[in-house]
Amino acid sequence: MIINAQINNYKIIKQIGSGAFGLVYLCQDLNDPQRQYACKAILKQQSSTKNVEDPNLKKSNILQTQLYHYFKSLSYKIFLPSLNLDSLMNMPLDQLQSENSYYREIILHLRSNHLPNVVKINEILESSIAVFIFMNYYAMDLFTSIVDEQHFINNPLLIKKCFIQLAGLVKDLADIGIYHCDIKPENILLDSQDNIKLCDFGLATDKIFLNLDTCVGSSYYMAPERVSGTSDTVKEHVMGTRVNDRLKMMMSFSNGSQYPTVAGDIWSLTIILMNLLTTRNPWLKAIPTDNTFSHFIKNKKVLSKILDLSDDMLELLIGTENMGEAYISKNRRYNHLTDFESDPLAGVKLHGIMTLNPWERGDTEVLSYFIQRVAKSEQFLRDSVDPSTNKTIKGGRLGLVRPLEDFEIDEILHKRKQPQVFHDMNKEVSFEFLMNHFSRNSSFSNLNNKPNTIQSQQVTTTVVNTRENTMRTLSSTGSTLPRVNTLFDFPNSNYLNFNEENVERNNDQGSFFELSLENEAYNESKNNQSKSLNLNIQSFLNKMHSYSNFMEENDIDMSMKDSIFYQYNPTEF
């Protein structure tokens, strides 16, 4: 054991994980004892472990023994050189030799180090037997959170947040040519705000296509084309699937035995979604010898008997054509049979994201579709019956859930617009520009109402009662928000006090999401929601315009106008 050993300014506290070629330790920064890091030690001479006499001996055990003797020979205190992260990140992968293949994981991780949902690498130290990667430490992983803590058990909005972040990250990685190939709850960490952080790039690749039966990943989450023994099933579905022009073009870039790498990661996402919704896995492995999966191959509707998924989720996963004629007739908006050639995602919509044809889910646009469908869904689980009252519970354990607004999705995906600053304007012009800016997408019958035409108490009540909608709508403009309480003397003004610290943290996902992700008694109020929102914003804008007119008509001193407008002064940004 190397507990309490020291590597440069890091002290090893305990071992917290192990993998095929590495060990993970919790470390303390001796320069800042409040800071803790996760240190992954990767065995350098990985090829040498193939010739060990005992095939059951784990490579991590070999590393553990080697590290023990290494630290012991140096009195448990070593000082190592720090690698240049930029130089390492730009190293061409095709130049790696077998003796330094361990760099592949590090390089691919560094190339995604800028993504907010990837565990950040801070420093890399290298010794003669191992490389030590120091990363941000997160105590909770998704598996523990789902199964042990049951953190998602009654929180459908949190499920949406988690899944959207994960699917968005898979798309971001694919966009820069990285495919994780081992997406599972144990490799997904959670910070204190329940933002996901992906780790362990040990199986990651930059190859766009992988050969059929390339066995890579974890059994529960591996796609059929990656599991040995499923090749005939996959080929049968590829040959028997109707193909549009977009798929034909994609297939022309590979030989007949290769399939898109991203298709495997997307399959893993479908299993994780079921984990989040039901805390269960549908099968042990996606192979014909698995009894449950063999039934799924014959009839995808069997998924409804395995898990309590709603029709909306079933249709997303197994496709319209597997939902039956009654469902298609009732939900014409899901019937994509007529627009097969024009819709590039028609195959996924017809056969589901869990299609057994990797080509149909082997497109990053499938991820965008996946995100939108989960974000807009109003019911994850099917209805259940309360045994004590014999009453129907809409949406089962999770209930009904409100669909997310587009800007909320952008917020979760780190795509919130930056605040706009109005440069090269004096304060008087900027004030009028601000009025127009807030009303540019709105149509009101009279924007020049006199002050006595507005009932201030009515406006106050409207804004207070729908404060989350106000925050949500104003933030979606991407503008710097006014301090409403300084503009108007509202009673109960604490309801209108925006959390400015959160709003200004542009890179913190916990800002507007915390303000907006409340279900707002969606089950009972979804029909009235848009009406109250429109009344709220109309009253707010009318009040602002009336206030502006009041100042102009009464020849208010500009110094007063300056005091009202003080936080829009461009020089302060």
Describe the protein:
- Helix 5 runs antiparallel to helix 8, helix 17 packs antiparallel against helix 23 and helix 18 packs antiparallel against helix 23.
- A hairpin with a 4-residue loop joins strand 13 and strand 14.
- The radius of gyration is 28 Å and the shape is globular.
- It is an alpha+beta fold.
- 41% of the residues lie in helices and 11% in strands.
- It has three domains: 131 residues, 2-Layer Sandwich (Phosphorylase Kinase, domain 1); 262 residues, Transferase(Phosphotransferase), domain 1, CATH 1.10.510; 146 residues, no CATH class.
- The strands form four sheets. It has a seven-stranded mixed β-sheet. It has a three-stranded antiparallel β-sheet with strand order 8-9-10.
- The two termini are 53 Å apart.
- One of its GO terms (biological process) is regulation of autophagy.
- One of its GO terms (molecular function) is ATP binding.
Annotate the secondary structure layout.
Elements: E1 6-7, E2 10-18, E3 22-29, E4 36-43, H1 59-73, E5 77-78, H2 85-89, H3 103-111, E6 121-126, E7 130-136, E8 140-141, H4 142-148, H5 156-175, E9 188-190, E10 196-198, E11 209-211, H6 231-239, H7 245-251, E12 258-260, H8 261-278, H9 291-298, H10 303-306, H11 311-318, H12 325-330, H13 346-351, H14 358-361, H15 364-376, E13 384-386, E14 391-393, H16 406-412, H17 427-439, H18 456-465, H19 467-476, H20 484-487, H21 500-504, H22 512-516, H23 522-553, H24 558-565
Parallel strand pairs: 1-5
Antiparallel strand pairs: 1-2, 2-3, 3-4, 4-7, 6-7, 8-9, 9-10, 11-12, 13-14
Protein name: Protein kinase domain-containing protein
GO molecular function: ATP binding; protein serine/threonine kinase activity
GO cellular component, one term: cytoplasm
